[in-house]
Structures are given as C-alpha cells and as structure tokens.
Amino acid sequence: TCPLGTHVTGRATPEPAADVTMVRFPLGMPSPVLAEGFSGRVVLAQALTPTGSAVYTPACLELAEPVVAEIAAGRIAGFDGPDPQVAAVKAHYAQVAKTLGIDARAVHSWHPGLHPGLAYPHPAKADWDRWSNTVFTSPQALHFHTCGAYAPGEICWMVLWPTVRVDGSALWSKGRLCPEACEATRAVIAAWPALGALFAEPLAPLGLDGASPGPWQRPPISPPASPTTSSD
Predict the structure, then answer these.
(1) What's the mean per-residue pLDDT of the chain?
(2) I want to staple 49 with a disulfide (CB 3.0 to 4.6 A). Which of 65, 96, 132, 148 is the partner?
C-alpha cells in the first residue's frame, strides 16, 4: 500500500536471480517479486520513467495529476483518472511498446529499496529519469517493472513511502524498512547501534519538495515496534 491509495495483494514468488544479482545491485534491494500473482490498484504520480534497460524518446512522462493503474494477475487491466492524463499514459505505453516490440500490458515484478541512507539532494523535476534510477534503492521507494514481460521492463512505476506486509507483518512501513521484524536483522541492529538509528528515522531527502502539485510530503514514519512484534 501507499499513502496515495495504492493497494495490491497477492502471493509472493521471488524471481529467479539469473540477471538481477548483488553484483548488479550491491545491497540496494531484494530480488524482484514476480507480479503474476498480484492484483489491485497502483496510484501513479510524479512521472512514468524508463528503467535503464533500453533507450527511447521521450524517456519520461510527467504526470500533472495521479492516474490509477488497475492490475489483474500481473497484467494492466486499465487506467483511471483525468481523461487527458489517462490518454497521455496510454499513448506513452503504446509508443514504447511499438518502438521496442514488447507487451504493453505486462507487469513483470516489483521490489522496494533497502538502503536508508540513500539521498537525492537535487530537484527531481529537473531529470525524472536520473531521479527514479537513483532513489529506487531507498526504502522510501518501491517500483514496478512494467511494459515488457521481463525484468526490469521498460516503464517504471515509482511508489513512494510504501508499506509491505508479508503474512501480516510489516517489513516496510510508510517508507521505513523494519529490521525489528526478523530475528536475524534484530541481531544486526543490536550489534551496530548506528544502523538502528538510521533505519528508525531515515531522513534522506528524495528531491520532491515542490516537484509537482499533489500530496508528496512523506507521512510520519511509524516508530520501531517492540523486539518481538512489528506494526504499521
């Protein structure tokens, strides 16, 4: 889920790590979770951006207003929102898919970031491509790989300040990675107190202040739960 209204549920199956590895993304994020078992709605805001997989023009589509993407079993079922904005999103998908000869409706996978110290001190609006391909390793961001039935796809959906629940436990809560949720990571935080402080309150800026109209202010981050429980 996210503060703007994203709500997607399903059964998580990690993508086989044939290409996306720690060599390529060192400690930036977990292996992608395949989207074929997921359905729901994703609120698209800020911009649609490329994934760094292929080059096409225009690379980004800035969104003046949010658009809701409906997904069903890893497929885009439709878009909802202001007519001009929805038309622009559909046209962008059609152009990228035609240019690259790929499946426009595919939602391949998703994963959130891990690194709470990552910061983006520049205005995101100045270069949405650079922004999205930088902040995606922050726990304040989760992204979907879309347009193309492979990782990382060609069009990225950036979801900010996500909450990710697995079997009822929040592993990410409003953009905060929750190391207290698992015994192994609790032990790491206990051994390295500076890490605990960083994960408890990741204040790194994302470059969105004044980026575009809309509720982009990060919500208050929930404090860490007790050593044996986790909460959102």
Answers:
(1) 87
(2) 132
- Its pTM stands at 0.87
Q: Which helix (H) or strand (E) holds 80?
A: strand 75-80
- pLDDT band at 24, cuts 50/70/90? low
Farthest CA pair distance, the chain: 53
Residue 31's pLDDT band, with cuts at 50, 70 and 90, is confident
How far from chain centre, in Å, is Cα 232?
A: 18
Q: What is the pLDDT of residues 119-151, one digit of tens each?
A: 898 999 999 999 999 999 999 999 999 999 998
Neighbours of 7 (CB within 10 A): 12
Q: What proportion of the chain, given as a percentage, has pLDDT over 70?
A: 83
Q: Give the span between the Cα atoms of 65 and 88, in whole angstroms.
A: 11
Residue 119 bridge partners (DSSP)? none
Residue 54 per-residue DSSP state: S
Cα–Cα distance between 82 and 86 in angstroms, integer?
Answer: 6
Instruction: Report how far apart, in Å, the C-alpha atoms of 93 and of each of 27, 106, 189, 214 are.
Output: 31, 11, 43, 23
CA distances from 227 to 124, 159, 162, 195 (A): 36, 28, 22, 15
Structure tokens that stand for 71 in this block: 């997904």
Distance CA 175, CA 210 (A): 19
